[in-house]
Amino acid sequence: MIKKTDTKPSNNKNLQNEAVIHLYAAADKIYPRSTFGFFTKWRWAMIWLTQIVYYGLPWLEWGQRQALLFDLEARRFYIFNLVLYPQDLIYLTGILIISALSLFLFTAVAGRLWCGYTCPQTVYTEIFLWIEAKIEGDRAARMKLDDGPMSSKKLIKKGTKHLVWIAFALWTGFTFVGYFTPIRELGDAVISMGLGPWQTFWVIFYSFATYGNAGFMREQVCKYMCPYARFQSAMFDDDTLIVTYDEKRGEPRGKASLKADLDKNQKGACIDCSLCVQVCPTGIDIRKGLQYECIGCGACADVCDTVMDKMGYERGLVKYSTQHAMDQGWNRSQMLRRILRPRVLIYTAILTLIVVSLLASLVTRPTFRVNVIRDRGVMARLAEGGMLENVYRLQIMNATESEQQYQLSASGIDNLKIETDVADKNQSVTVNSAESRSIPVRLQIPDGSIKSGSHHINFVIKSVNENESIDEEAIFLVPR
Question: Does the reported pTM lie above 0.85?
């Protein structure tokens, strides 16, 4: 804010007029109107699907455990029949790459499908708006309520709305933490008031984020916080399906009551009812062309089709189309044929290759993993019986849901002997289901049997139950 001082002629030379100029104007609150139609049905179908998955998955059981659980404390991820360790981070990397390429592919084909139909910000904003409409009424009733003075009726409605919002947000935060802590144990902890500090923090934090973003910030997140809105144009081209306004058909705008009026009065099909603006969750006017604030939800297309039906006009004044189709006057089949263009084919081929590779890797992955760690405190030492000894630690990670036995052996040097205090006489150790066990191992050779230096050896760990084996290389040191 700055002050502008303007001195005008006056009998009092010290008299000055000051004007306050605001450099920032607060955004007006947007009251989206409810709408119905093809795209609205699809949007609500995706809301139901995503929320059933989100709220339902933590409650599914797989055997004696939660089907989907990211146990950070134990450093294990359970995904149905998969048990993943931190060493399996490559799979998470693959999933992230698949997600990114899928976003590129869908954006190249049909614009901001993610934003308009499945983005959490869109989903929870729609849910919160639905709750608001059920309690406070439709768009006109909400605007009237906000403009009116405080009263007991207004206080009750506002209070009820916020209580429902907070309850829903808390349930959302509770479910989020349930992916990292067994949700049934988490529920018992909530009932008994025994939540840990970190669990409490994340439930409250995620609940507050949901309440604030979906209840208050809404379109501000899409406009100013989401980076996707800024770089989406790099993934668009003239054959990308976007929500468009048919300017040739709609202009000049004007009021009309009959279909004959269009030719008689030389008016366009747009009757300037502004309903497309009223239903837009970000408050833009689609008739001004493509704007970065547009999330591609299709609400304006649904409400415009409703108006066209009432006026007896042809549908599609606002619709999903491409820039080429609008410029060239293509029909729907001509427009759809351009979808399979080089960019889309390349994205599809790369995405398919990565998905197939990831699935093949998951199917063929071994049922256990092994890490070999040298004891750095003891390079080499003399043991009883004139034996030269190197000390190691084998970390065996059982990635199955059953107890497994593993047989240990080593090769690479003549007369190499393996010793461990936790194995049986056959050098076999037991690891419980989905657990990691560290095994201290001593490798011995007769002192002076080989020359000094470092010698390559192999640890061979064989799963007795699964008939699988893993070879891990290591170094045996012989001092001078």
Answer: no
